[in-house]
């Protein structure tokens, strides 16, 4: 999922020992940005290579763009053919199955056949037909997947079932990198996986990493308030960059598993939580659910949620109790 954050990083030079480092590479289809502070220049130069290797290893498992990834190879399975899978993939599938239930089936990694249909149609500059959507939807749902925890295997009841981890894997990758940096005694860090952001300790002499959010439906206009975060993750979803317009209606790249179509509610959803994986999938689920159900889900998951949208040209903002705590405090 494309996220809508603009990151404000101000150089801090007051510390004679710590120096700021920043590295960016294209990973998982988006710029993957790593920022950290370190006192050892030699160690600081070697750390990013190890971080990006972690991201590459996850992409080799979870990418649904490559037939050579572990997920890609599963598309070749015949109906009811068992396949033993890696610990990492099996664990993520089991976790995603719990999410599927908890989110009222709004977050669904089995939606791969539908997302691939939309990608193909967009590449061909056309809108999918109702018959195509219906056929793809029949290949979704955890009821069509057989998981055996004892043997750590997976099987599909139908041919053509595909998995799509796009709404969770970038937040997971960002969290994995932050965790790795902390183990490497580099706790002052920020990882931005194409907009899914996870932060550790704040930069020297600050109260947190300063992050700004787009106004709904705007590419460049930003909120007048900025988030100031530490030791948490933040994810925002919206359709300012990726969408399809058909017969005057705007369809987001975020697909509702129940309909098979991109959602048409044009709103920004921002989720703050202590873990990147959960913040990522919650942002997706809360974009699809009704506003009432989205806040109920966020509350159950102990996450903080902000939903912003325009109604009759007026900006409407709904926030979880406690969300204001994360905004930058005004200097007196």
Q: Can you describe this structure?
A:
It is built from eight helices and 16 strands. Residues about 1-15 have low confidence and may be disordered. It has helices at about 40-60, 70-75, 85-100, 110-125, 130-135, 170-185, 275-290, 290-300, and strands at about 5-10, 20-25, 30-40, 85, 145-150, 155, 190-195, 195-200, 210-215, 225-230, 230-235, 245, 250, 265-275, 305-310, 315-320. The two termini are about 40 Å apart. Helix 1 (about 40-60) packs antiparallel against helix 6 (about 170-185). The longest helix has 22 residues, at about 40-60. About 30% of the residues lie in helices and about 25% in strands. It is α+β, with helices and mostly antiparallel strands and about 325 residues long. The chain is globular. It has an eight-stranded antiparallel beta sheet, covered by helices on one side. Strands 1-9-10 form a three-stranded antiparallel beta sheet, with no helix packed on it.
């Amino acid at each position: 999922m494309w996220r809508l954050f603009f990151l404000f990083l101000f150089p801090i030079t007051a510390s004679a020992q710590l120096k700021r480092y920043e590295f960016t590479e294209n990973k998982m289809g988006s710029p993957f940005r790593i920022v950290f502070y370190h006192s050892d220049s030699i160690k600081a130069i070697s750390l990013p290579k190890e971080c990006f290797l972690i991201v590459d290893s996850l992409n080799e498992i979870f990418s649904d763009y490559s037939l050579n990834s572990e997920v890609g190879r599963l598309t070749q399975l015949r109906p009811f053919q068992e396949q033993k899978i890696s610990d990492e993939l099996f664990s993520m599938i089991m976790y995603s199955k719990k999410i599927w239930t908890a989110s009222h089936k709004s977050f669904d990694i089995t939606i791969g056949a539908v997302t691939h249909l939309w990608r193909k149609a967009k590449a061909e500059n056309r809108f999918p037909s109702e018959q195509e959507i219906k056929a793809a939807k029949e290949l979704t749902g955890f009821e069509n997947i057989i998981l055996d925890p004892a043997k750590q295997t997976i099987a599909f009841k139908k041919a053509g079932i595909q998995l799509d981890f796009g709404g969770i894997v970038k937040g997971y990758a960002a969290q994995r990198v932050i965790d790795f940096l902390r183990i490497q005694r580099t706790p002052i860090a920020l990882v931005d996986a194409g907009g899914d952001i996870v932060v550790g300790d704040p930069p020297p002499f600050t109260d947190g990493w300063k992050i700004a959010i787009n106004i709904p439906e705007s590419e460049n206009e930003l909120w007048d308030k900025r988030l100031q975060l530490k030791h948490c993750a933040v994810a925002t979803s919206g359709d300012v960059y990726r969408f399809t317009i058909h017969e005057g209606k705007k369809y987001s790249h975020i697909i509702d598993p129940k309909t098979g179509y991109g959602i048409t509610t044009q709103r920004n959803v921002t989720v703050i939580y202590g873990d990147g994986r959960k913040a990522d999938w919650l942002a997706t689920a809360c974009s699809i659910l009704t506003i009432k159900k989205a806040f109920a889900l966020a509350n159950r998951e102990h996450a903080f949620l902000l939903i912003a949208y325009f109604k009759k040209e007026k900006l409407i903002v709904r926030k979880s109790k406690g969300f204001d705590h994360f905004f930058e405090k005004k200097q007196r």
